[in-house]
Amino acid sequence: MGEILELDCVVIGGGVVGLAIARRLAIAGREVVVLESEPLTGSITSSRNSEVIHAGLYYAAGSRKAELCVKGRQALYAYCRERHVPHRQCGKLVVASNEDEVTYLEKLLKQAAANGVDDCYLIDAAALHALEPEIHGHAALVSPSTGIIDSHGLMDAYITDIEAHGGSVVVNSPVLSGELTKEGALLSVGGADPFEATARLVVNSAGLEAWAVSQNMRGLDPATIPTRAYAKGNYFTLAGKAPASRLIYPVPEPGGLGTHLTLDLGGQARFGPDVEWVDAPNYDVDPARSEKFYAAIRKYWPHLKDGALQPAYAGVRPKTVGREGGGGGDFVIQGPQATGHPAYVALYGIESPGLTSSMAIADEVWQLTA
Ligand SMILES: Cc1cc2nc3c(=O)[nH]c(=O)nc-3n(C[C@H](O)[C@H](O)[C@H](O)COP(=O)(O)OP(=O)(O)OC[C@H]3O[C@@H](n4cnc5c(N)ncnc54)[C@H](O)[C@@H]3O)c2cc1C
């Protein structure tokens, strides 16, 4: 190991959230280096999601998710337009498949309004049929401001901005351990050319590994590290034409938003993610899970044909509340005051809607460290 590098800001993790934070700090004039353990940026959870720009309907009023989703969505649409990041504001329908679920939709409408999402409205079965003839239900909630995005196009734009403001993104560079010192932090970085670096500010945005990174940070009070749970979400693609032109969601299930229909920008339909609690991340999709998918999807799309679903991919939600706690949980964003150290910021539980919220999370981190 050679001399110790002296850095200003290090962001650990080159997923969509780490990149958004690095972009924000670089624009604010900090010298930023992103350290990413994988050979490619954005190849973990940021590549394994629904690529939906969420409106912000579901989250409890006053929660970090509600606030940062709504702010982040507005910032994200503006950024996508300005930077020509491929996206489409296709809208979404949350479909009630029985009378009880209609009551849920009424509650959801109020929740959306409480979160500042004021463009949603309810439609009856006939109006639903007129909009999406293949989709069946007693009623639906229409969310016009929901959309889809090319998440890799977004991350490429963030990286362009980081580099344009003097920052850099270094792949194959896992942070192995660190120490919080009086002056800042000392990091030990592995990979083919291991090195050590000091930093005035370290932002732990390591997604599923955020807990491990903090556990290996000497000088950090372990009591600041929240509990951790992993909820895997499996996806199946549809062979053939999509049955709808909007995103179609059932009412949510504990831990996730329900097995929904999303579309990619090419119009290909996929279903998922479901909720499978796991002890450690893994990305195999068990074809046998399709049975539950057929049942869930046929509640709103009865014409789904046998054999039409193919196992696709899976992602894992980093959560601060597990199955025992009901599977909810909020984003945890700890600035220097909350971590107890002026040089350390840590983010935990950045599951959905983290992609949508990325720019708002970045603003928050910048404010906490300005
Ligand atoms: C199934 C599923 C569906 C989702 N759907 C949506 C959606 O439709 N809309 C939405 O808004 N959000 C969605 N999300 C949430 C969204 O995908 C995440 O919030 C977002 O991708 C998190 O980004 P991140 O940068 O925090 O994490 P990640 O993308 O996981 O990035 C963390 C990075 O840190 C790196 N890393 C880990 N340890 C180290 C280390 N020691 N040193 C250096 N680097 C390290 C990893 O390699 C990784 O690249 C979904 C999530 C899941 C799981």
> How many strand units?
21
CATH top level of the largest domain is Alpha Beta
What structural class do you assign from the helix and strand content? alpha/beta
Examine the coordinates and then state which fold CATH places here, giving the name of the CATH topology of the largest domain: FAD/NAD(P)-binding domain
Rg, Cα atoms, Å: 21 Å
**CATH-assigned homologous superfamily of the largest domain:** FAD/NAD(P)-binding domain
Please tell me what the overall shape is: elongated
CATH architecture of the largest domain: 3-Layer(bba) Sandwich
Beta-strand residue fraction: 25-35%
Taken in chain order, the helices and strands follow as EHEEHEEHEHEEHEEEEHEEEEEEHEEHEH
Mean pLDDT: 96
Helix content: 25-40%
Task: Please provide a written account of the structure.
It is a single chain. With 370 residues, this protein is α/β, with parallel strands linked by helices. 28% of the residues lie in helices and 28% in strands. Helix 1 (16-27) runs parallel beside helix 5 (151-164) and helix 1 packs parallel to helix 9. The chain has nine helices and 21 strands. Strands 1, 2, 9, 10, 11, 12, 13, 20 and 21 form a nine-stranded mixed sheet that branches. Strands 14, 16, 17, 18 and 19 form a five-stranded antiparallel sheet that branches. It has a four-stranded mixed sheet with strand order 6-7-5-15. It has two domains: 5-48 and 152-227 and 328-369, FAD/NAD(P)-binding domain (3-Layer(bba) Sandwich); 92-144 and 229-319, D-Amino Acid Oxidase, subunit A, domain 2 (D-Amino Acid Oxidase, Chain A, domain 2), CATH 3.30.9. Bound molecules: flavin-adenine dinucleotide (FAD). Flavin-adenine dinucleotide binds at residues 12-18, 35-38, 42-46, 48-52, 54, 174-175, 205-209, 213, 233, 273, 315-317, 350-356. Flavin-adenine dinucleotide binds next to helix 1, strand 19 and helix 9.
